[in-house]
Amino acid sequence: MKMSLVVRTTTKFISPFLVTYAAYLMVYGHLSPGGGFQAGVILAVSVILLITSHGYKRVKKSFRFREVQTIEGISALSLVLLATVGVFFGGFFYNFIRGGSFGALVSGGIVPLFNIGVALKVGAAFTFMFYMLSRWVERD
Amino acid sequence: MKRFMALILIISLLFVLASLDYSKNQRGSYAYYTTHWEEVGVPNLVTAILADWRGYDSLGEAVLLFASITGFYLLLGGKKK
């Protein structure tokens, strides 16, 4: 299931920029407007665009089903672990990493780490859903 | 015996919950956010609310997404082709 040449070229051109923008949003989520969920959705859209234009079978070779599943599980586990480590310092979700000046990139303790985890989780989850649906549609 | 243990657990939890500090801020939640902003150390107020004060909420959303993924895999996964 392929779309026309114009659509394929445009999506191929746009997807890397979308990934770069998602990485910016997830790393700078605690300084500028943005955050985990938005970054994850944009990360998923960059793959979904490729699926809709090139077809599921072509994209499956580059972004493997098993890898998406693994990223999703590992990020979900790391979120829970990050929250649980705080128990040893004072409470669930305790911000145990202090340091960095107000407004610097490396500051805010666990907030940037939490953002990155949420972004990877949401992106992998939406990609996984789209893989599932397109695999079910192209089954017969 | 199980019921007795559960009763003890519930009563101790009740005491813990009743002894927490429930005194509310005079001018509402927005004034609390702006006066306690320095505690979090994050310039973006929305991220400070979502990832620090309401971290449980974000974690719950992530778990909800994980549950939906599990449901997708259970319904549509199955064997390959």
List keywords for this structure.
heterodimer, A: 140 residues, mainly alpha, elongated, B: 81 residues, flat
Tell me about this structure:
The complex is a heterodimer of chains A (140) and B (81). With 140 residues, chain A is mainly alpha-helical. Chain A has helices at 5-27, 36-54, 56-60, 65-85, 110-137. Chain B has a domain at 45-81. Chain B has helices spanning 2-18, 28-35, 37-40, 45-53, 55-77. In chain B, helix 4 packs across helix 5 (55-77). Chain B is flat, with a radius of gyration of 21 Å. Chain A binds chain B through residues 29-37, 72, 76, 79-80, 83, 93, 95, 98, 100, 102-103, 107-109, 111, 114-115, 118, 121-122, 125, 128-129, 132-133, 135-136, 139, and chain B through 38, 40-44, 46-48, 50-52, 55-56, 58-59, 61-63, 65-66, 68-69, 72-73, 76-77, 81.
| Mean pLDDT across residues of chain A | 88
| Radius of gyration of chain A, taken over Cα atoms and rounded to an integer in Å | 18 Å
Shape of chain A: elongated
Kindly state the number of beta strands of chain A: 0
Count of helical stretches of chain A: 5
Low-confidence stretches of chain B: none
Q: Calculate the mean pLDDT score of chain B and round it.
A: 85
**What is the number of strand segments of chain B?**
0
The gist of it:
The complex is a heterodimer of chains A (140) and B (81). Helix content of chain A is 69%, strand content 0%. With 140 residues, chain A is mainly α.
